[in-house]
Amino acid sequence: MGTNDMSATINIHTPEQKASGDFYGQYFWKDYDVQDAGFLRFIVDHVGHERLLTASSLLDIGAGSGKFSILLKQAYPHLEIEALDVSPDNVNTIEANAAASGVDISVTEGSVLGLPYENGKFDIVLCVYMLQHTPDPQRGFLEAARVLTSGGTVLYSIGRENGLGIVHTKTRGLFGKVPSSLRRSTVLPFVPLYWSLLKATGSRKASENDLTIDLVDWLYNPLQKFVSESEMVSWFDEANLSYTPLGYTGLFKSMHVCRGIKIERHS
Ligand SMILES: C[S@@+](CC[C@H](N)C(=O)[O-])C[C@H]1O[C@@H](n2cnc3c(N)ncnc32)[C@H](O)[C@@H]1O
User: Fold this and answer.
1) In a mutational test of the pocket of ligand 1, which residue from 46, 130, 155, 225 has the highest number of ligand atoms less than 8 Å from its CB?
2) Domain spanning 3-162+225-261 has what CATH number?
3) Distance of alpha carbon 67 from alpha carbon 32, whole angstroms
4) How many CB atoms are closer than 10 A to CB 33?
């Protein structure tokens, strides 16, 4: 099925999706520090240095601030990097951040639910911390795999249903009426507690700004679609990807990091 056929069968620009795309730009991406070596390490550790060295093209889906694309271009200048985001505002921010960092990457406005690329175009695809903010994570998952070349590597980090769904829904219900200008300040008192919980559960270290982003996201992002682990594993099969689980990040291990390699098809 071609990209246009996919876009025709689903409305990929619902008001909820637009609000979800604009959400980060509104709160964070404009003054975001993209030069944090920890972010580069996250990708290199999970994708693999050798794979990054031998690949020639990489797609960063839901690129946000552009941090992964920018850091990767600086570390692996031979890579042709395409950063894609659904929000025009974020696209502008990625372009500005790339220019300020002096790197040459392509930036495209588009949705993971109907990627504007032919099958098998990229050697590496990143789909990190973004599928749960779309109306259809499964479709996005399969789209990311579709544009991956045979033998190519895709890195997913996906919101996982970890048994706290009801707590999450109720808390979001309570906070739902807070005006957008006050949202950031409502989570600040909880940042130290969140930091301690992450430390106690051995999750990734993060800056205060990142922890604030996590909390605002958890409470206020209009689209939060977590999926069960077994469902997610079945998508790897459906997409003809090998499955390598790489652990969890976030509070109560709510984000599942996993890698797939597209299995070569012999006709
Ligand atoms: C949590 S941020 C993650 C950004 C980046 N991947 C990172 O890890 O820092 C989610 C990003 O996905 C983008 N996004 C949401 N829905 C999308 C969609 N359907 N297609 C492409 N990008 C989308 C948002 O605009 C936002 O920038």
Assistant:
1) 130
2) 3.40.50.150
3) 9
4) 12
Domain boundaries, the chain: 3-162+225-261, 165-219
CA 260 to ligand 1 centroid distance, Å: 20
Distance 18 CA to ligand 1 centre (A): 11
Q: Are strands 122-128 and 106-109 parallel, antiparallel or unpaired?
A: unpaired
The residue behind tokens 């559960």 is 201
The tokens describing 40, both together, are: 């580069």
Asked whether the predicted pLDDT for residue 8 surpasses 50, the reply is no
| Alpha carbons 156 and 162: distance in angstroms, whole number | 17
d(CA 97, CA 69): 10
Amino acid letter, 144? A
For 223-241, the pLDDT digits (tens) are 888 899 899 999 999 999 9
Cα 39 vs. chain centroid, distance in angstroms?
A: 12
- The residue with tokens 């909880």 is 190
